Amino acid sequence: MGDSAENQYTDFRSVAVDGLPFFTPKQRIPVGTAILDPENGITEETITPAFRPITIRGKTFQNRIWVAPMCMYSCQDGMLSDFHVAHYGQWAMRSSALITIEAAAVTLRGRNTPQDAGLWSDNHIAPLKRVVDLIHPQSQKAAIQLQHAGRKCGVCPPWLGLRLVPDEFGGYAKDVQGPTAEPWNENYATPGEMTEEEIWETINGYGQAARRAVAAGIDVIAIHGAHGYLVHSFASPAIVAAYKELEAGGFGKLCICVE
Ligand SMILES: Cc1cc2nc3c(=O)[nH]c(=O)nc-3n(C[C@H](O)[C@H](O)[C@H](O)COP(=O)(O)O)c2cc1C
């Protein structure tokens, strides 16, 4: 029978989730689990597929209603706050089996906006852990997306028009990096063409950010490879054609996508 919450419960006392700075009762059945009733024809085959459990790489999710990464542009210095505890906590309490925390910049230069979430320093671990510590006791799993926004760095949030932030308002147009010196379009900064050294610094940034995410208890890590951000822009056919190394059979600067 083991050590399940079910066995530890008494008729009159809820069992606490261990290791938290607050009391929350252990769930006997993870919230968001379909309750099957085969005698009445309710089986995994007859329920809606969204509620069929799924196991991927040893992690079991009780349903497939997962929250996509969604930037909130609401951080100071990349730190998650009470806002994020409430924001992500609401999905956990409403039973999404996997909640993806918004894109977090792996380097300071990799922020899309100055208010992006970040994981570029060890100081970001504790605020992220607070969010994870609310998600886990609700029987849900936590993912985070790691990001470098590449040529799209240094703009204001969408509700301010995604315009380049001037230096005097905390902008960092001169630090923007890309695979070549071509801007995304005229509204964005002209990036510096990344050197191999900068590319390896960034790859290392991804590695360190992943380590920090794991230290905070994150279950799943996603790499942002879309939206014209850094990894995406290196994978563009226009950029690939620019790299002679590829012709020579190596990955050259494209190691950023592979590593
Ligand atoms: C407010 C908002 C913020 C988003 N931020 C991100 C993000 O951080 N990373 C990402 O890959 N996609 C982001 N997206 C895209 C969503 O993750 C998702 O892919 C998109 O909404 C399409 O999914 P849907 O058809 O279920 O809405 C964002 C979308 C919204 C609405």
UniProtKB/TrEMBL annotation:
Pfam families: Oxidored_FMN. It comes from the Eukaryota. PANTHER family: NADPH DEHYDROGENASE C23G7.10C-RELATED (PTHR43303:SF4). InterPro entries: Aldolase_TIM, OxRdtase_FMN_N, YqjM-like. The lineage of its organism: Eukaryota, Fungi, Dikarya, Ascomycota, Pezizomycotina. The keyword Kinase does not apply. It comes from Aspergillus avenaceus. GO terms for molecular function: FMN binding; NADP binding; NADPH dehydrogenase activity. Transmembrane segments: none annotated. This is NADH:flavin oxidoreductase/NADH oxidase N-terminal domain-containing protein. Keywords: Flavoprotein, FMN, NADP, Oxidoreductase. Its cofactor is FMN. Residues 51-238 form the NADH:flavin oxidoreductase/NADH oxidase N-terminal domain.
